[in-house]
Amino acid sequence: MTFVVRADSVSKNFRLHSERHRSFKDKLLRPGQGVTTDFTALADVSFEISSGETVGILGRNGSGKSTLLKCICGVLRPTSGQVLVRGSLAGLLELGAGFQPELSGRDNVYLSASMLGMSTKSVDAIFDDIVGFAELEQFIDTPVKFYSSGMYVRLGFSVAVSVEPEILVVDEVLAVGDERFQAKCMDRIRQFQRDGRTILLVSHNADQVRTLCDRTLVLDRSQLAFDGPAADGVRVFRERLMGASPVAGAAATRSAGTIDAVSMPSGRFVATTGEKWEMSVAVTANEPIEGHFVMELHNERGELMVRSDWEVAPVSLSPGSHVIHVDSPSMSLLDGAYQVSVGIVSDFGSQALVWREQAAVLEVTYRGRGAGIIQLAPRVRVS
Ligand SMILES: Nc1ncnc2c1ncn2[C@@H]1O[C@H](COP(=O)(O)OP(=O)(O)OP(=O)(O)O)[C@@H](O)[C@H]1O
Ligand SMILES: [Mg+2]
To answer: Does domain 257-365 have CATH number 3.40.50.1220?
Structure first.
């Protein structure tokens, strides 16, 4: 197999220097010698990425994702091990990396494109496209230090994709842009995929990773905890590392219990569009749980079809085994097979207390003649 990016036992240590906890006497006797400790941000990480793959990198805050991308982009040198890259690479790293704050947007475009190997002439040819995509025509001669974080990222992304690298590396900065711009970026990233380019993407949006990526690397406390198909990686990330959080932006850390089983009355996981359905969820609580029931349905492509409203489904569990009964008067989804994920989240949905990703596959049958995703069931009357 030919690789375009290969990491061989990559480790990265940062030396942390601290003057704290030193006595005055100690400082007088040994000036300039604070306490130094080595912090391991990446430990023995190895993988190979082939040409044309889209790889999502998931992990909690501080797990080493940005450090890994910086090693791949050559911004940081691994303490041990090595990274090999074959082909042109453009990276959009953390905010603040890449641009010279005092220079205008225009000068930064030329500077960063030339660092990516483009001549001034070739930048001239694509300059208007870069600025146009970033929608910064009015501000292109303003020093970038006056840009908002969203403007900064728009220009950075626009430069990175416009130089048409063989390998595109994007840290989660895209989340800074507004939704409309994010959608534009996603279109560009899909275009990159169709062109057969290689993409490495850090994202905290697990649904996005599942939808976009072929493969996922999960980092956990500096180590590579998983390398495999995207949907499995998302499950590992949510279940094992995050304690699973279905609600966007939520940060869960602990598991207050387990979802032991989900079932439907007929014994099979089936429902019919427009008809009543019910489901039982067996839960064991390790501690008292005050929370809200949430379920998600994903389609076969991993796209989120629906996440139920936590607010209307409070649950209160004492330690021990329980069954949560769920029913709804009408299945709105049209036919398809849907992955069912269930759990209990805290108030405001900010933390998953218990979660089971892909607990079952629900087969929905539709007997009508409509098309699309959901049943609209309009009533019609002529007057
Ligand atoms: N230059 C540095 N000096 C010292 N420590 C650093 C440096 N850069 C990163 N670290 C530490 O290394 C660890 C990994 O950081 P990194 O930025 O790679 O995490 P991350 O997974 O990208 O997190 P986030 O999701 O918050 O972006 C963190 O504990 C961080 O504090
Ligand atoms: Mg980061």
So the answer is: no
Identify the CA nearest to 10 among candidates 44, 39, 53, 49: 44
**pTM for the full predicted model:** 0.72
| Ligand 1 close to Cβ of residue 67 (< 6 A) | yes
Domains 3-241 and 257-365 belong to one CATH topology: no
Say if residue 247 is exposed, middle or buried (CB neighbours under 10 Å; 0-12, 13-18, 19+): buried
- What digits encode the pLDDT tens for the residues 17-43? 766 556 666 666 666 666 778 899 999
Most confident of 68-82, 92-106, 170-184: 68-82
> Of 125-129, 164-168, 234-238, 298-302, which gets the smallest average pLDDT?
234-238
Q: Is 108 in the pocket of ligand 1 (CB under 6 A)?
A: no
- CA 150 to CA 23: how far, in whole Å? 45
Atom of ligand 1 nearest to the CA of 15: 4
CATH match of 3-241 with 3.40.50.300: yes
pLDDT tens profile 221-251: 899 999 999 888 887 787 666 554 444 333 4
Residues with CB under 5 A from ligand 2 (ion): 66
Q: How do the domains of the chain map onto residue ranges?
A: 3-241, 257-365
Q: What ligand has the least distance to the C-alpha of 62?
A: 1
